[in-house]
Amino acid sequence: MGIERWGNPPWRIDFHPAARRLPREVDFAIVGGGFSGLAAAAWLRRLAPQKSVAVFEAGFIGAGSSGHTGGIALGETAAGDLPGLGDVLAGYSTILRTLKVNCELSLGGAYELARRSGLAEAPISWSDSGNLRVAKEIPGGSVNPGKLVSGLARAAQRLGARIFDNARVEDIAPEESVRLRVRGAEVRARAALVATNALSLELSGLAGRAQPKFTLAVATEPLTSHQLDALGLASRKPFYTVDLPYLWGRLLASNRVIFGSGLVHLEDWRELEVLDIAKGEPAELLALLKRRVRGLHPALRSVKFTHQWGGPMLIGENWTPVFARHPRSARVLVLGAYSGHGVALSVYLGCWAAEALLARRSVPDWNQAPGAGRRV
Ligand SMILES: Cc1cc2nc3c(=O)[nH]c(=O)nc-3n(C[C@H](O)[C@H](O)[C@H](O)COP(=O)(O)OP(=O)(O)OC[C@H]3O[C@@H](n4cnc5c(N)ncnc54)[C@H](O)[C@@H]3O)c2cc1C
Fold first, then answer.
1. Which pLDDT belongs to residue 122?
2. 347 alpha carbon to ligand 1 midpoint, in Å?
């Protein structure tokens, strides 16, 4: 999956599943080894240890957005609260604690930044197409994405899910049971979850219903506490702008600061398979982002960047995440399209999807697409 071409984020994914033969049959097949798919797999086994669960990942665990994210954990969805959603951040903390995932979760709040309406006592005052200041503090925080992906995979494996990397699902045929074609072989499942996000949009039935994009980020060298004080980042709260041009960022434990911005619009998700951050529009957007960061504050004027990368995201209709039955089969659930707001939501809804696969909870009614929910 185009991984070297997407650059290198400043964390490691240290989970690698053992090679094993593909099963012929499982109770539940999970397609996609990102936050959503891994959380669903772990939760399925936790709730129903007698049921067999397999995760099929086309590349490696975290190869998609989850390994290339920014790691800011926010509540609600990109479209705000939704009927029946509940408290995403409280649920997220409980799930990570229950699954014993240690990922440096810190939920001390996040800053919304704006050019027009800053707080009088705003800790941040930067120059970026105007005076960028804290407008509001909201619930949220951050995680170490490498530890989150690896921790979820380890939890799923420890609970008995089988994880297969380099196992692209090429097709899903919904019949009496679900038939998946994985690496050319057939695997039958009682039910499946497709959590492939911005990739494989024909497989998930999302082609034409959600828009794949590519977005970019850079990490600075570790900053001194003097620089962090001057920047107003001593509280270590992540931040994002609520007006344009968009900018988001956060600190890492190492005192590097990640800044992100820029969207590459794609006609077809397959463009992700050849997209190279060293060339063309992504390279120009990265250069622009670095110029912006150096111009934010005198403390950043000659800062060095140690990492640059990008990753895919999927924008849902009206910014609403997709959590629905597959248009071709009620036995297959589709989950994703968090519109850049998936770090907490993917895990939270992944566990909800596990409960829906076990018929312990219903699928929400957020997506009114024609054909969604129809039985084959
Ligand atoms: C640069 C960047 C910064 C971001 N920052 C934030 C942030 O700060 N806060 C926030 O809330 N959100 C953020 N996001 C969004 C967030 O990272 C995603 O919403 C989240 O990671 C989605 O997880 P997922 O498991 O649904 O999808 P993914 O992690 O994309 O997982 C999908 C997986 O499916 C696999 N796959 C695809 N096709 C197949 C197939 N046919 N067969 C088998 N496997 C397949 C892929 O290889 C991939 O591993 C950011 C995204 C990017 C790119």
1. 79
2. 11
* Ligand 1 atom at minimal distance to the Cα of residue 344: 11
Q: Is the CB of 313 under 6 A from ligand 1?
A: yes
pTM of the model: 0.96
Q: Is the pLDDT confidence value at 369 over 70? A: no
Distance of alpha carbon 43 from the chain centroid: 18
Nearest residue to 62 (alpha-carbon basis) of 353, 343, 314: 343
Q: Whose CA is nearest to atom 33 of ligand 1?
A: 32
State if residue 33 touches ligand 1 by the CB under 6 angstroms criterion. yes
Q: How would DSSP label each residue in 43-90?
A: HHHHH-TTS-EEEE-SSSTTTTTGGGS--EEESSBTTB--TT---HHH
Is the C-beta atom of 71 inside 6 A of ligand 1?
Answer: yes
For 220, what's the count of Cα atoms within 13 Å in the CB-facing half-sphere?
Answer: 26
Q: Is the four-CA dihedral 52, 55, 61, 65 of positive or negative sign?
A: negative
Q: Distance (Å, rounded) from C-alpha 361 to C-alpha 68?
A: 31
Q: Which amino acid is at 349?
A: L
Residue 121, both tokens? 């006592």
* Per-residue confidence band for 176, with pLDDT thresholds at 50, 70 and 90: confident
Q: How far is the CA of 313 from the centre of ligand 1 (A)?
A: 6
Instruction: Please tell me the predicted confidence (pLDDT) of residue 258.
Output: 98
> Do 248 and 239 meet the contact criterion of CB atoms below 8 Å apart?
yes
Give the gyration radius of the chain's Cα atoms.
20
Q: pLDDT tens across 118-156, in order?
A: 777 779 999 999 999 999 999 999 999 999 999 999 999
68 CA to centre of ligand 1 in angstroms: 8
